[in-house]
């Protein structure tokens, strides 16, 4: 991991209050191109809140976000998407009754327009899907397969493919292996590694130390809404990271 | 061993989509053959076939509207009442002496507005389920229809108004007899169904309707304005009920208080027989058409054989249960790993 990689996203002293509750206090986060950052922390440590601030779902009470070095104020998740930030939700957010390709492009389908009517360009969807799945080395029988016919790992792969179909720079994954069979976990982790190779910055929120130590370059721990500890992965150990989660250094 | 399994699996994957798409048509063909066997002289006669299409004409519009709603995992119980209210408005406008093109367009607008009311109610009032909103409007629309008409039938429309429901396309120029005409309502069914087939399968909005039924959260996360699409769907459903009113006006030459009573249940039944799932995201326009046809042919065939209408009710109910059970079995097979 070279340190000259471009800084894609930076959060500076982000603070978020919900009424009198302080969910985040002066939290900083950085993610570079081709890097994977693991975010760990106990329930209620502020992981989800931080991710929701990054994706524009919540507005920070104080602090600022920099995309490619420029300060941006996000009004909605649409804004962060336009800036190249994508979320892969834990519940996957796929429509099982639709084929893989249509899921990947759902909401952003290529169309041929005839006046007010927008007709789907099925040929283009198929071409783009095949190319994109090929690039990420995702193997499925056919892009026309319905998502509900896929295994959990394949679904996760489709969800990740979906998040990166539109030149995403940063992808946030919430517990990407939580719902998977053990034999499928490896495939998803491989996929995260190939994403990194394409220059995408990946933020993985996970409780599983195996995942963190398989794909991450850096790990940061949140504790009670604050930056508790952070380290290059090579300079720490599982036991230490588990300690951070519990608030022990 | 695994290879063999995969082969079987891929063959299965190849056949299943066709079975899912066209299985219901197979059932329809079998029914037609059985009826033909039972009533060889009458059933497939020109007169009887056109009769079936005339009988299903307005139901087919309601069923198509309800189908789109069911695809979103919703339900519209008010289509019968929307049709009745639109019909009454049409009758009043016609009696007031409005020119025919105004009379023809009123039920379409009335139906659309009723559907819009449903859609806005469901989304803006955040009703826990469309069942509740449309159960309410089932009463509201029919009550309104009775209020404005005094609860009495209003009869007598001009030929232009009656054209869609009652018109005949002469085919003597093809060398056919005078009695072998094409009902305009049949042509209308074909046109409307083709348009909505294209809408549901080829347009982006149609795809989003399926996506919402498949997983509303996924649709929302994909930036789809779910509420807007729902309002469009319920409005279109109302619009189709308005077309139903126009056809019914032509067929009966009358606006009457009992119009469309319980026809929402027939519409739902046709969708379910045609393979639409109550859980949303599943079903085809072709399937709904087959569902409407199956119910129409069943009624027609049983009438031809002089079977009491009470038996018809029992049979239609049984077919609904059977059709869904076959679907359950098919799904069991599909998910077995």
SSE inventory with pairings:
The complex is a heterodimer of chains A (249) and B (337).
Chain A: E1 7-18, E2 21-32, E3 36-40, H1 47-54, E4 62-67, E5 70-72, H2 77-82, E6 85-88, H3 100-104, E7 111-114, E8 117-120, H4 122-135, H5 152-163, E9 170-174, H6 182-197, E10 201-205, H7 209-215, E11 218-223, E12 226-232, H8 238-245
Helix pairs in contact in A: 5-6
Chain B: H1 2-38, H2 46-71, H3 79-95, H4 100-124, H5 130-149, E1 154-155, H6 159-166, E2 168-169, E3 182-183, H7 184-202, H8 204-214, H9 216-221, H10 226-252, E4 254-255, H11 263-273, H12 285-304, H13 309-335
Antiparallel strand pairs in B: 1-4, 2-3
Helix pairs in contact in B: 1-12, 2-7, 2-10, 2-11, 2-12, 3-4, 3-5, 3-10, 4-5, 4-10, 6-10, 7-8, 8-10, 11-12, 11-13, 12-13
Task: Describe the protein in words.
The complex is a heterodimer of chains A (249) and B (337). In chain A, strands 6-9-10-3-11-12 form a six-stranded mixed beta sheet, with helices on both faces. In chain A, strands 2-1-4-5 form a four-stranded antiparallel beta sheet, covered by helices on one side. Chain A has a two-stranded antiparallel sheet with strand order 7-8. The model of chain A has no long low-confidence stretch (mean pLDDT 89). In chain A, a hairpin with a 2-residue loop joins strand 11 (218-223) and strand 12. Chain A has eight helices and twelve strands. Helix content of chain A is 31%, strand content 29%. In chain A, helix 5 (152-163) packs parallel to helix 6. Chain A has 249 residues and is of the alpha/beta class. Chain B has a single domain, classed as Orthogonal Bundle (ABC transporter involved in vitamin B12 uptake, BtuC), CATH 1.10.3470. Helix content of chain B is 75%, strand content 2%. Chain B contains 13 helices and four strands. The longest helix of chain B has 37 residues, at 2-38. Chain B is globular, with a radius of gyration of 21 Å.
């Amino acid at each position: 991991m070279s340190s000259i990689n471009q800084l894609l996203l930076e959060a500076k002293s982000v603070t978020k209050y919900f009424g009198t509750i302080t969910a985040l206090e002066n939290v900083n986060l950085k993610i570079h191109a081709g890097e994977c950052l693991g975010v760990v922390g106990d329930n209620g440590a502020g992981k989800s809140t931080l991710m929701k601030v990054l994706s524009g779902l919540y507005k920070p009470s104080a602090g600022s976000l920099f995309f490619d070095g420029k300060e941006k104020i996000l009004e909605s998740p649409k804004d962060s998407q336009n800036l190249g930030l994508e979320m892969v939700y834990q519940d996957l957010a796929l429509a099982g009754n639709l084929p893989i390709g249509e899921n990947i492009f759902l909401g952003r389908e290529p169309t041929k327009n005839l006046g007010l009517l927008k007709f789907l360009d099925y040929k283009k969807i198929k071409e783009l899907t095949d190319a994109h799945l090929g690039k990420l080395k995702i193997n499925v029988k056919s892009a026309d397969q319905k998502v509900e016919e896929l295994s959990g790992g394949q679904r996760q792969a489709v969800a990740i493919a979906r998040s990166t179909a539109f030149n995403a720079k940063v992808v946030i994954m919430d517990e990407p292996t939580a719902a998977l069979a053990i034999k499928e976990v490896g495939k998803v982790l491989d996929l995260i590694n190939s994403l990194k190779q394409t220059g995408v910055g990946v933020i993985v929120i996970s409780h599983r130390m195996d995942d963190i130590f398989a794909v991450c370059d850096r790990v940061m721990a949140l504790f009670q809404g604050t930056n508790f500890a952070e380290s290059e992965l090579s300079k720490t150990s599982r036991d230490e990271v588990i300690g951070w989660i519990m608030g022990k250094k | 061993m695994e290879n063999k399994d995969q082969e079987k699996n891929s063959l299965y994957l190849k056949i299943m989509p066709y079975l899912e798409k066209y299985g219901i048509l197979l059932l329809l063909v079998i029914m037609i053959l059985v009826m033909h066997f039972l009533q060889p002289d009458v059933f497939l006669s020109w007169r009887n076939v056109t009769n079936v299409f005339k009988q299903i004409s307005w139901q087919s519009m309601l069923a198509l509207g309800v189908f789109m709603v069911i695809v979103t995992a919703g339900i519209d119980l008010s289509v019968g009442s929307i049709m009745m209210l639109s019909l009454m408005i049409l009758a009043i406008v016609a009696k007031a002496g409005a020119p025919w093109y105004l009379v023809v367009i009123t039920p379409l607008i009335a139906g659309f507005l009723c559907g819009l009311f449903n859609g806005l109610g469901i989304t803006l009032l955040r009703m826990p389920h469309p069942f509740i909103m449309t159960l309410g409007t089932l009463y509201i629309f029919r009550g309104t229809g009775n209020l404005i008409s005094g609860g009495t039938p209003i009869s007598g429309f001009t030929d232009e108004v009656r054209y869609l429901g009652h018109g005949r396309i002469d085919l003597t120029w093809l060398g056919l007899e005078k009695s072998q005409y094409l009902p305009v309502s049949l042509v209308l069914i074909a046109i409307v169904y083709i348009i909505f087939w294209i809408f549901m399968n080829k347009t982006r909005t149609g795809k989003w309707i399926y996506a919402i039924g498949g997983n509303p959260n996924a649709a929302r996360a994909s930036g789809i304005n779910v509420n807007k699409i729902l309002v469009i769907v319920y409005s279109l459903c109302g619009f189709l009920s308005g077309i139903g009113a126009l056809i019914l006006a032509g067929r009966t030459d009358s606006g009457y208080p009992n119009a469309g009573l319980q026809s929402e249940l027939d519409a739902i039944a046709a969708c379910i027989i045609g393979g639409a799932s109550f859980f949303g995201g599943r079903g085809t326009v072709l399937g709904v058409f087959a569902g409407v046809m199956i119910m129409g042919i069943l009624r027609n065939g049983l009438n031809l054989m002089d079977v009491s209408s009470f038996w018809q009710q029992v049979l239609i109910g049984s077919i609904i249960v059977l059709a869904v059970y076959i679907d359950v079995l098919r799904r069991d097979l599909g998910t077995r790993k």
